[in-house]
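User: Just a sanity check before I run the rest of the batch. Below are the structure tokens for the first item. I only need the designed sequence back.
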């Protein structure tokens, strides 16, 4: 797992999320609906990498009903299939999901 230096939590683990969720973490007045997707890194179900994207991105990319995506979505060069994701503090994301921001 990657690490990040969070201004609130110091050195901590990361989660990958779309820019809309990152913006909501940075500015809690921005509300988003969060959807968790997992990318099957090895396409065999043994390694699932969670990604969090907002409802708007899910709709824009046609991902509403898919919760596990094939490895081709991870780091896809074709940005038309999956939104760009960025690392965020896992503790900040958890607080956002739980409504504790």
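Assistant: Here's the designed sequence for the first item:
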């Amino acid at each position: 797992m990657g690490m990040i230096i969070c201004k609130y939590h110091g050195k901590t683990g990361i989660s990958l999320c779309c820019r809309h969720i990152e913006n909501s973490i940075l500015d809690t007045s921005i509300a988003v609906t969060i959807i968790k997707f997992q990318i099957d890194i090895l396409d065999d179900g043994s390694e699932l990498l969670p990604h969090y994207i907002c409802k708007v991105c899910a709709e824009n990319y046609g991902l509403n009903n898919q919760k596990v995506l094939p490895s081709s979505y991870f780091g896809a060069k074709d940005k038309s299939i999956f939104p760009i994701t960025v690392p965020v503090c896992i503790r900040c994301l958890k607080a956002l999901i739980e409504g504790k921001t």
